Every structure is written in structure tokens, then in C-alpha cells.
Amino acid sequence: MNSIGKKIKDIRKKKGLSQEELAEFAKVNLRTIQRIENSESEPRGKTLNLICQVLEVNAEDILDHGKQHDKNYLIYFHLSVLFGLVIPTGNIILPFILWITRRDKIIGLNSIGTNLLNFQIIWTFLTFIILIVGIFLEVMHLEFGSINPFFLLLLPCLYLINVFYQ
Questions:
Q1: What is the full DSSP assignment across 28-71?
Q2: How far apart are CA 135 and CA 66, in angstroms?
Q3: pLDDT, tens only, 16-39
Q4: CATH for 4-62?
Q5: Domain locations in the chain?
Q6: Rounded to whole angstroms, how far apart are CA atoms 127 and 84?
Q7: Exposed, middle or buried: residue 84 (CB in 10 Å: 0-12, 13-18, 19+)?
Q8: Cβ proximity of 102 and 109 under 8 Å
């Protein structure tokens, strides 16, 4: 895990700012910036917020309080949508539980989780609507050419899209 000072230094360099410019724009002492970047000290709340405003980043992105990289968990998280093949709405319930329990502990899980859950909710809703329309057409014996085989093929195709998209 990168130290706070290294992260600030990397972001500052990407923005093309010198230490003097960062200190001036953030209204912080130059020596304070130097100590932070050399990991001699960590910025306190107000100082960190001033630096983050100048660098146009969130303080949470710089502070990873105990967060870790866990690619295996992210893979399992993506694969958890397959639980929907076993239990209806399992593609929402299991990822939601996995997301809630670890979103503050794994880097990137919060944004990945919100995207995945939003997609699963929309996908489940659309699949449900298509299924209801197909059942309605079958019950009412309404035939518009070959619409019934279309609905029989559409549902597996939707599941394949869901599996391969995630």
C-alpha cells in the first residue's frame, strides 16, 4: 500500500505542480508539503482537505484506512451473480451481502459493487417484464407469427448476456 505522502506526490506530479505551487495554492507551509511527501509526517484533517482541494481529489481516495487489494474477492464478487441461476433474485441478494460486508475493506469494491448491483437490478426487472409479457401472450393465445419461440430463446439469451457481461 502506498503511503499518503507518496500518493500526494504522485498526484501533484501528474497535475504538473511543484511543491512550491502546491503549498501556495493550498495555503500550507512549503516545509509541511515536503515533510508529507517524504513520509516524515502525515497531514492532519484541514491540511489534507486543503491539499486535496488543490489536487482535485477526494481525501478518501488518498486515505485507504486499512483497505487492501483483493483481486480474488472481486472475482468471487462478480461470480456471485450466478447464484441467480439457483435462486430467483439471488443475483442481487448474494452480491449485495458480499458488497455490504466488505465495501470499506477492499479497494475498488464500492464502485464495482454499485455498478454490478445497479446492472443486476435493471437486468432482473427487464427479464421479469419480458417473462410476464411472454406468459401473457401464451395464456391469451395471442400469436403474432413466431413470437412464442422468440420468448423461449430470449430468456436464455438474457441469462447469457448477464453472465458474460459480469
A1: --HHHHHHHHTTSS---HHHHHHHHHHHT--HHHH--TT-B--H
A2: 50
A3: 989 999 899 999 998 999 999 898
A4: 1.10.260.40
A5: 4-62, 71-165
A6: 12
A7: buried
A8: yes
Share the mean pLDDT of the chain: 83
Using DSSP's 3-state secondary structure scheme, residue 5 falls into helix
Rounded Cα distance, 98 and 148, in Å:
37
Average pLDDT over residues 57-85: 80
User: Distance (Å, rounded) from C-alpha 60 to C-alpha 90?
Assistant: 31
Q: What is the pLDDT of residue 1?
A: 41
Alpha-carbon torsion angle 152, 157, 162, 166, nearest 10:
160
Cell numbers of 6, please? 507518496
For cell 491540511, the residue is 47
Could you tell me if 147 and 158 are in contact, meaning their C-beta atoms sit under 8 angstroms apart? no
pLDDT, tens digit (0-9, with 9 covering 90-100), for 80-131: 988 888 888 899 999 999 999 988 788 788 888 999 999 999 989 988 888 8
More confident residue, 70 or 67: 70
The residue type at 162: N
Q: Quick check: 85 and 94 in contact, CB under 8 A?
A: no
